[in-house]
Each structure stands twice: as structure tokens, then as C-alpha cells.
């Protein structure tokens, strides 16, 4: 009897606890066009780049990375969503309105990610800094709702919003992580644009998105530091968790304390665990191999003054 009960319970348990989690997750990281500064510093007629810190961040949590190119066909983006287990929109300085750029590619990816989730397929998306701002732009049907602000090169603790502890992003965080997040300067901010709660409300995004933490810029303007979609596994953070362990520019306030590294690992583990709940695969191992970041070599950019120690540059 007990034995039969167990047999009956095992499939149920695995469905609920993710015993059948995907342990070979692949994350697509969207590339973006080079800023004029980068084009001058790194001549090579490159069409796009991905900072290596995002790649290492994802790899350290147990996933592999596929770079997503800009200026491709709609079917390229649809096929990628069908092949990877989650997508990350990195920070940077790309324009939202450039034709064939970062935001145009993201619009395609976001559309397919939403369709997947609407169809009951768990498909996570993460945006960091510009990528977080981009999520608001996409959710607002390509309306730029950002406001000018000053939070460049400052590390801060988070100010949680009431109810943050029932959000997906923080519900399972340990007391130790929550204490570090709220009391130490562990989140790296490098932005001249902010999203305020009023901006979300005005764009009618407050019904779908839950603001979980805020901060104040150097002028005292309160901005959103983290949010998540209420229904779908879509997350945005205005700060840069990937910089803590991987970016070392001497004049930048990247938090490198032992606790800051734990915070970085918390966010990376969270997102990759979300991706483990998705079972997409490339059509064949050969196609997977051909898409992985291992086909490219990182360039040491930090020694030439870049805020990124290493970048992947693409020509196609
Ligand atoms: C970039 O492209 C231009 C025009 O095709 C060419 O003249 C130049 O040599 C290229 N630069 C590099 C660094 O490859
Ligand atoms: C996009 O690709 C087309 C060719 O397929 C090219 O003509 C165009 O310049 C590219 N646009 C950008 C922004 O790179
Ligand atoms: C969330 O935090 C509030 C206030 O600190 C507390 O009253 C509540 O019990 C917490 N909820 C959960 C699910 O931990
Ligand atoms: C949080 O932990 C619970 C219990 O282990 C788990 O069911 C849930 O999926 C976790 N939430 C997230 C978002 O990982
Ligand atoms: C965080 O940084 C601010 C500004 O640099 C500083 O005033 C504050 O003391 C720091 N807080 C901690 C806990 O180190
Ligand atoms: C965004 O919010 C700021 C401050 O709350 C406000 O000044 C600005 O007008 C808002 N912009 C939009 C597009 O809602």
C-alpha cells in the first residue's frame, strides 16, 4: 500500500518540485550595436557586441550562452525562442529607435516570449539596466517612458517595497541575502535614465508589473530598481548584478566585497533556475554547437578604457 502510494506520488512530486528540471539550460543573450565611442576604440566594422561579464554571470550559474544577433529576420528570433530556455537583455547604451538594432530584435523576442507564456510554456526573460528599461518600452508597445535621472557610478543597498517577500524574485531569498541587499552597497548603478512608479502607472503597466524595490538617484528622485511581471517569468533590474565579480574598471564603483559576490550569485542562480523550468532545445546538437558562444573569442577591452573587461564582438 505504502509502496503503491509512493509510486503514485512520485510523478506528482516531480511535476511540482521540478525533479525533471532541465539541467542543460541555454540562455540567449541579446547583442547590441556599438556606441560611437566603442566603434572608435575598437575598429573592425563590428555590427554588434555582448559584454563578456553577462556570459560569465550566466555560465557561473550552470547554463550555456548563445549570443543573439541584431538585424536578423523575424524567423531567426522565433527559432531562437523555440531553441533556448530563457533570454537576457543586457545593459548598454543602444537606442530604442534604431532600425535593425537592439530594440527591434528585442521586440521580436519579447513577442514570442509572451506568446509562449500565454500558451502555458514557462519561458523566462531578464533585463538588466538598459535591458530593464527596454522591458518597459516593449511592454508599453514601444513607448519610451523613461525619465532623465542621475545614478551613474553609485553602489547602493535596495529599498524593498511592501510585499516584496511574496514576489517570485525575492520570496526564496535567504535572510542573509536579504540583509546584505538592504544594508550594504552591493548594487551597481550606471544609468542616466530611470523608470519611476508614476511612469509605470501612466503607461498603465502597473496592473501587469509588480515593483519590488526602489532607490533614490543623487537628486533624490525615487526610481524602480527591480520589478517582475505578475503572471509571466519576466524580470528587470536597473542595477548590474553581473558587474560585481566581473568588471574591474578602477574608477567604477563596482562592489567586489564577498557579500556583493553572494548577491550576484543569488540573481544569476535565480534566473538560471527559472530557465531550468523550460525544456526547449535546438533542433539538433549540431545546431546547438554552432550557436553557442564558444564559437567566438572575447577581446580584452578593459585595458583600452572600456567599462567592460572583455567583450564579444560580432561581424554578422
Ligand atoms: C571597414 O570597412 C571599410 C569599408 O569596407 C574598410 O575600408 C576598412 O578597412 C574596414 N576596417 C576594418 C578595421 O576592418
Ligand atoms: C541590416 O542588414 C542589412 C542587410 O541585410 C544592411 O543593409 C543594413 O545596413 C543592416 N542594418 C544595420 C543597422 O546594421
Ligand atoms: C513579508 O513581510 C511582512 C513584513 O515584514 C511579514 O509580515 C510577512 O509575514 C512576510 N510574508 C512572508 C510570506 O514571508
Ligand atoms: C521558491 O521555493 C518553493 C519551494 O521550494 C518553490 O516551489 C518555488 O518554485 C520557488 N520559487 C521560485 C520562483 O523559484
Ligand atoms: C554606501 O555608500 C554611500 C555613498 O558612498 C555611503 O555614504 C554609505 O556609508 C555606504 N554605506 C555602507 C553601508 O557602506
Ligand atoms: C516619468 O516620471 C517622472 C517623475 O515621476 C516624470 O517627471 C515624467 O514626466 C514621467 N514621464 C512619463 C513619460 O511618464
Give your account of this protein's structure:
By secondary structure, the chain is an alpha/beta fold. The protein has a single domain (25-314), classed as 3-Layer(aba) Sandwich (Rossmann fold), CATH 3.40.50.880. It has helices at residues 2-17, 36-41, 52-60, 74-83, 102-118, 130-139, 168-171, 175-183, 197-202, 243-246, 258-275, 285-291; strands spanning 26-30, 48-51, 64-68, 86-89, 125-128, 147-156, 159-160, 187-194, 209-216, 222-229, 234-237, 299-300, 310-314. It has an eight-stranded mixed beta sheet with strand order 3-1-4-5-11-10-9-7, sandwiched between helices. The chain has a three-stranded antiparallel beta sheet with strand order 2-13-12. The longest helix is centred in the last third of the chain and has 18 residues, at 258-275. The radius of gyration is 19 Å and the shape is globular. The N and C termini lie far apart (62 Å). The protein binds 2-acetamido-2-deoxy-beta-D-glucopyranose (NAG) (6 copies). One 2-acetamido-2-deoxy-beta-D-glucopyranose binds at residues 43-45.
Amino acid at each position: 500500500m505504502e509502496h503503491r502510494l509512493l509510486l503514485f506520488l512520485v510523478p506528482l512530486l516531480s511535476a511540482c518540485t521540478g525533479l525533471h528540471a532541465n539541467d542543460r539550460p541555454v540562455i540567449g543573450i541579446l547583442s547590441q550595436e556599438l556606441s560611437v565611442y566603442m566603434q572608435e576604440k575598437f575598429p573592425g566594422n563590428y555590427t554588434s557586441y555582448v559584454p563578456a561579464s553577462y556570459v560569465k554571470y550566466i555560465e557561473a550559474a550552470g547554463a550555456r550562452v548563445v549570443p543573439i544577433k541584431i538585424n536578423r529576420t523575424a524567423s531567426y528570433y522565433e527559432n531562437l525562442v523555440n531553441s533556448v530556455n530563457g533570454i537576457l537583455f543586457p545593459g548598454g547604451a543602444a537606442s530604442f529607435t534604431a532600425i535593425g538594432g537592439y530594440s527591434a530584435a528585442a521586440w521580436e523576442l519579447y513577442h514570442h516570449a509572451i506568446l509562449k507564456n500565454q500558451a502555458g510554456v514557462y519561458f523566462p526573460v531578464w533585463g538588466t539596466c538598459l535591458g530593464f528599461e527596454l522591458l518597459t518600452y516593449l511592454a508599453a508597445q514601444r513607448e519610451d517612458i523613461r525619465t532623465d535621472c542621475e545614478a551613474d557610478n553609485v553602489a547602493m543597498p535596495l529599498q524593498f517595497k511592501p510585499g516584496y517577500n511574496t514576489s517570485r524574485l525575492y520570496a526564496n531569498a535567504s535572510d542573509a541575502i536579504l540583509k546584505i541587499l538592504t544594508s550594504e552597497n552591493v548594487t551597481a548603478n550606471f544609468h542616466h535614465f530611470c523608470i519611476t512608479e508614476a511612469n509605470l502607472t501612466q503607461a498603465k503597466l502597473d496592473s501587469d508589473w509588480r515593483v519590488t524595490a526602489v532607490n533614490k538617484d543623487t537628486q533624490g528622485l525615487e526610481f524602480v530598481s527591480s520589478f517582475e511581471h505578475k503572471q509571466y517569468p519576466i524580470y528587470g533590474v536597473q542595477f548590474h548584478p553581473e558587474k560585481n565579480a566581473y568588471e574591474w574598471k578602477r574608477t567604477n564603483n563596482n562592489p567586489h566585497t564577498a557579500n556583493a559576490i553572494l548577491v550576484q550569485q543569488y540573481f544569476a542562480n535565480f534566473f538560471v533556475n527559472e530557465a531550468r523550468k523550460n525544456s526547449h532545445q535546438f533542433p539538433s546538437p549540431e545546431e546547438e554547437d554552432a550557436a553557442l558562444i564558444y564559437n567566438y573569442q572575447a577581446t580584452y577591452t578593459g585595458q583600452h578604457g572600456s567599462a567592460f573587461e572583455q567583450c564579444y564582438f560580432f561581424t554578422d
